[in-house]
Amino acid sequence: MIIGSRGSALALAQAGWVKERIREKFPKIEITIKIIKTAADKNLSIPIRAGSSIGVFVKEIEAALLKREIDIAVHSMKDVPTRIPEALDIGAIPERADAHDALVANGEARSLSTLRPGSRVATGSVRRQCQILARRKDLQLVDIRGNIDTRLNKLANGRYDAIILAAAGLKRLGLENRMTAPIDFTEMLPAAGQGALLVEIRKNDADIAPLIAHLHDEPTALAVLAERTFIRHVGGGCNVPVAAYASLGHGSIKIEGLISSLDGRSLIRESVVEAPQRAQEAAIALAEKMLAGGGKTILDAFE
């Protein structure tokens, strides 16, 4: 079996995790990881915020899957466009890791609220930017690119006072000790699918599908697909701050959504609680409610 992956340390850690889970169940299978450079890897000038909408992190890997150069592809779910190619399919969505965003700060600050006024906070995400500005307009937000190590080094060199990263990425790389604190969901909703992986296969691949079926976690899949349905129905585009997070508990699913202007001044956040079997319908209903309640006006400003 050949697993297709990007070449970053995080991507390889994720592909390696999938490889080991498959080998645990099928120890006789020889598994290799093939590194594939994506558009985002080849062209560092591409804004990271455009990633999930136009597929700059996944298209080349999906092309290799279609050409049968690899057998499965492993992606960060938040990087995957809300519609995948017709000839491909979801093979498995493993149990989700930590979906929180995380503050990594120099100095004594232990949270967003305790950062000094005027602190330079780096993030490449407009979703994070708008939610920070909605609470702390006195902070200086600056753009940042590069992998996790690059960003941490820039912080250590004093270029910024703090950076915002995905908690799951830090933990998968064994860098949890670098995290100052997770940012509570009440302060910052994550990207749809954040913390989750997608194991992508060719549609109707009867040889490969049984080998990865044990990786699938249905509660995670239910929540993540509801988030992606919300984002797809909102249709905000690649440069619009939108967010979604779904969680299951006590026989129901709670879906939270966010639509915001870039400066955080116009921000709509709503939630809905529904039976899990109606998660997709609930996500669409939430999107329609938020669009009608001012979200469409916010999104129209980006056209």
Taking all Cα atoms into account, the compactness measure Rg is 19 Å
Q: Give the biggest beta sheet.
A: 5 strands, mixed
Query: Helical percent range?
Result: 25-40%
Give the count of helical stretches: 10
Q: Quickly count the domains.
A: 3
Mean pLDDT: 93
Structure description:
By secondary structure, this protein is α/β, with parallel strands linked by helices. The protein folds into three domains: 2-94 and 196-216, 3-Layer(aba) Sandwich (D-Maltodextrin-Binding Protein, domain 2), CATH 3.40.190.10; 101-183, 3-Layer(aba) Sandwich (D-Maltodextrin-Binding Protein, domain 2), CATH 3.40.190.10; 225-300, Porphobilinogen deaminase, C-terminal domain (Double Stranded RNA Binding Domain). The chain is 33% helix and 22% strand. A five-stranded mixed β-sheet has the order 2-1-3-10-4, with helices on both faces. The longest helix has 22 residues, at 279-300. The mean pLDDT is 93.
Defining traits:
single chain, D-Maltodextrin-Binding Protein, domain 2, Double Stranded RNA Binding Domain, 5-stranded mixed β-sheet, 10 helices
Summarize this structure briefly.
The strands form 3 sheets. A 5-stranded mixed beta sheet has the order 2-1-3-10-4, sandwiched between helices. A 5-stranded mixed beta sheet has the order 7-6-8-5-9, with helices on both faces. The protein has a 3-stranded antiparallel beta sheet with strand order 11-12-13, with helices on both faces. The chain has 303 residues and is of the alpha/beta class.
